């Protein structure tokens, strides 16, 4: 889920290369000058959430430490959009978004993050690490494996954090960014400061995973989906999804590394679990809260309990390139699945900033 510091504080690095490092009413406020000087095309159709149920044929490719499972839509030589999911979600979050973007000529890549779905570690000896820079490097490796030099990155929750990290550390790989909930790069040291009681209450599962009891719940094949379903219900209070919709995503939770990855992610963010030393150089850069310079469109879902007050003001200073912000009324945490047309339009608009 999103970075807890979003509640209380605002959250450049340039020229770092991969080789050197190894239908709702939308309110908006724009800043910056559009880079292309063209009128952004509006999507020709509004898709009702839940229109599509399948992400299509799944593919696999070896990339870095992983064999990544992913879905692909659109023309093979179209401009690339990478759609990145969060927790407890999977590639089905983009099941209605991908066809909209494909129809606009985009090549849409939707990967399972490490520990999810059909993505697998290549070695049983690899530490099941879910710190932010490790996940971001997975996506850079995927781009390399698919020979994608640059792409629009669009994500929510863990996907937002991952896209933000890549935009901050490897900006030359990011044509534009769609960042739900704004700037989510984690500062582990800052995470030690308590929030208001109401804000802390929303993060119950984060503290649950800090316990052995919570870890065992994630390992339990019965309790795991019940826990994830509870999160869906509470963070998307207006989303009227059915059992079948949840069940399609819940298959991604059966990945043998799922519990280890989820628990490590939240423990690492609270400073309760170590990362790996060879990622320290990236985490040191990220702890400085680097500005993001690529063209960015941020989305705040109004009904998400993690959305910070202030209509994006708490993180505005972290985006210093062409920029636009929108608030989505009536939408909860899983933005692309709850409001697919608005999310897809944000991708097109970001690409034209």
What is the element layout, followed by pairings?
Blueprint: E1 27-31, E2 58-63, E3 66-73, E4 80-84, H1 97-103, E5 107-111, E6 120-121, H2 132-145, E7 151-155, H3 158-169, E8 174-180, H4 197-202, H5 204-209, H6 212-219, H7 223-235, H8 243-250, H9 258-269, H10 280-287, E9 296-301, E10 323-328, H11 335-338, H12 340-351
Q: How would you briefly describe this protein structure?
A:
The protein has 353 residues and is an alpha/beta fold.
Could you characterize the architecture of this molecule?
The protein is of the alpha/beta class. The chain has twelve helices and ten strands. It has helices at 97-103, 132-145, 158-169, 197-202, 204-209, 212-219, 223-235, 243-250, 258-269, 280-287, 335-338, 340-351, and strands spanning 27-31, 58-63, 66-73, 80-84, 107-111, 120-121, 151-155, 174-180, 296-301, 323-328. Strands 1, 2, 3, 4, 5, 6, 7, 8, 9 and 10 form a ten-stranded mixed sheet that branches. Helix 6 (212-219) packs antiparallel against helix 9. Mean pLDDT is 90; it is low at 2-37.
Unreliable residue runs: 2-37
Spell the H/E element sequence. EEEEHEEHEHEHHHHHHHEEHH
How many extended strands?
10
Oligomer: single chain
Radius of gyration: 18 Å
Span from first to last CA?
27 Å
Overall pLDDT level: 90
- Count every helix, treating DSSP H or I runs of 4 or more residues as helices: 12
Q: Output the structural class.
A: alpha/beta
Largest sheet: 10 strands, mixed
Helix fraction?
Answer: 25-40%
Overall spatial form: globular
Q: Please report which band the strand proportion falls in: under 5%, 5-15%, 15-25%, 25-35%, 35-45% or over 45%.
A: 15-25%
